[in-house]
Amino acid sequence: MQTITELAKRTRLLIMDVDGVLTDGRIFITASGEELKAFNTLDGHGLRMLQSTGVQLAIITGRDAPGVAHRARGLGIDHYYAGVHDKRTAFAELLQKTGIDAADCAYIGDDVIDLPVMSRVGLAVAVPDAPSFVRQHAHFVTGCGGGQGAVRELCELILQAQGNYDRLMAGYLA
């Protein structure tokens, strides 16, 4: 069986859920029906660092919220799938579009709707407050919760496994 480091080293595409992963899972709805979500800036910078090393980024989310689309554009997310009810279909399309093998993908999710993709990727990751059934099907469970640095933690794991972390950090000290 491969170690987490060996699985992370292969990652060429990081795929993320949104609610409960990039956010803490809470959805605030204004009187006019607008959805508000809070994103962690540490996650955002982690994604930018990972992307700078050539790893592609994707979001597959069941909800279609304008704020999420705006955040994805702001982060330069390569592939964005919103309002997806069957994540397998979006995942298959993503693999075809990128030409990347499923074994070279990492996915981070928090609920059973994520399992169809988690069960197909090389590195399946869950957040600690995911239901135990989901955590049981993950190769790795982050220490940080969704919207609280879980994605940053995963980005740093991948960067370290691929030998890019120290070089990137040295650039901040130069």
Outline the structure in words.
This protein is α/β, with parallel strands linked by helices. Helices cover 40% and strands 16% of the residues. It has eight helices and eight strands; from the N terminus they run H-E-E-E-H-E-H-E-H-E-H-E-H-E-H-H. The protein has helices at residues 4-9, 41-52, 66-75, 87-98, 115-118, 132-136, 150-161, 165-173, and strands spanning 13-16, 28-29, 35-36, 56-60, 79-81, 105-109, 123-126, 140-141. It has a six-stranded parallel β-sheet. It has a two-stranded antiparallel ribbon with strand order 2-3. Pfam families: Hydrolase_3. InterPro entries: CMP-NeuNAc_synthase, HAD-like_sf, HAD-SF_hydro_IIIA, HAD_sf, KdsC_fam. Belongs to the KdsC family.
Write a brief caption for the model.
The protein is of the alpha/beta class and 174 residues long.
